[in-house]
Amino acid sequence: MKNYFMPAEWDKHEATWLAWPHNKNDWPGRFVPVQWMYGEITRKLAESEKTRIIVYSSAHEKQAVRILSRVGANMENVEFFHFRTDRVWVRDYGPIFVRSENRTAAVDFKFNGWAKYPNHNNDDKIPKRICRKLRMKRIDASDFVLEGGAIDVNGEGTLIATEQCLLDAHVQARNPKFNKKEIEQTLKNHLGVSNILWLGKGIGGDDTHGHVDDVCRFVNKDTVVLCMEENKKDPNNRILRQNMERLERMRLEDGSKINVVPLPMPKAVVFDGIRLPASYANFYIANSVVLVPTFNDPNDRKALDVLADLFPERTVVGIHSVDLVWGLGTIHCITKQQP
């Protein structure tokens, strides 16, 4: 795919995509507060960019408008698109937007419900429907499974992912017929990268089996934040230390070392005996703000301070996400940038 590349998330957006909640099973007993959380997220996004919201009907749109009006969102920057979806995690099933010198296109990878959930057929059709509606060039990559939360890029040629998510051929295997070299070449061909960095595992509680956006994120072209767990009894402690050891040996596309900034972890968030994927790394970089999930935890302030230092030209805003993470994802998982 010549001349197209995936821009970094901090590059200027034309819009951010969301899918308004409708599957109550994702948030048992918490569906109502999650809708209000969507209202607050949209309010912050619409201050500086278009916010394109997927709804499944006129009635669904009215539900969203009622909440957005009450929270004071800038409705001039809100657009609704009527597409049927299964769930809200548009980061993973939405198109991955790429740029050439003067054109935006969308790569349509296969979405198979994280190789775990059967209710994904509507979600898998979203990239095609978005491209048709926007009259945007669609690049068919439907022979390869990839979720947006499985990768992160610096926009200069380097991509980071975990072996657990993309290379495991037995547990939630995305592309079991592809070997490592073939997977790397597919990523390079479709996303315009030249340098792929492999971390080991993702955090505990992540039902995606190792998405990198809960672990490690680029914050500029040569710097990442990496989650670190101080509690040695927590299983994440060893996993994240091993990822740090890997990063210290890795190099960027130009051969330079990576600046690694530690990001704390909140204490374990547990629901019904199950650990949830609570992580400050699941932030979203918008045009004027960085939206960061918080968890009523003493480390909330530490994480916000770390990110505020790294994004001096943006306002870093904490979004209370204890209810949202009951659905096994937070802010980065429900957003998708369109450059």
Describe the structure.
By secondary structure, this protein is an alpha/beta fold. The protein has one domain: L-arginine/glycine Amidinotransferase, Chain A (5-stranded Propeller). The chain contains 9 helices and 18 strands. The strands form 6 sheets. A 4-stranded mixed sheet has the order 3-2-1-18. It has a 3-stranded mixed sheet with strand order 4-5-6, sandwiched between helices. A hairpin with a 2-residue loop joins strand 13 and strand 14 (274-275). Helix 1 crosses helix 2 (58-71). The relative contact order is 0.16. The model has no long low-confidence stretch (mean pLDDT 97).
Which SSEs are present, and which pair or pack?
Elements: E1 15-19, H1 31-45, E2 50-55, H2 58-71, E3 78-82, H3 90-93, E4 96-99, E5 104-110, H4 121-124, H5 126-134, E6 137-145, E7 152-153, E8 158-162, H6 163-166, H7 180-191, E9 195-199, E10 216-220, E11 223-228, H8 235-249, E12 259-264, E13 270-271, E14 274-275, E15 284-285, E16 289-294, H9 299-310, E17 315-320, E18 336-338
Parallel strand pairs: 1-2, 2-3, 5-6, 8-9, 11-12, 16-17
Antiparallel strand pairs: 1-18, 4-5, 7-8, 10-11, 13-14, 15-16
Helix pairs in contact: 1-2
Low-confidence stretches: none
Number of strands: 18
The average pLDDT score comes to 97
Q: Report on the biggest sheet.
A: 4 strands, mixed
The coarse overall form would be: globular
Q: What string gives the helices and strands in order?
A: EHEHEHEEHHEEEHHEEEHEEEEEHEE
Query: What is the straight-line distance between the termini?
Result: 18 Å
Assembly state (oligomeric)? single chain
Read across the widest sheet, the strand sequence of neighbours is 3-2-1-18
- The number of domains is 1
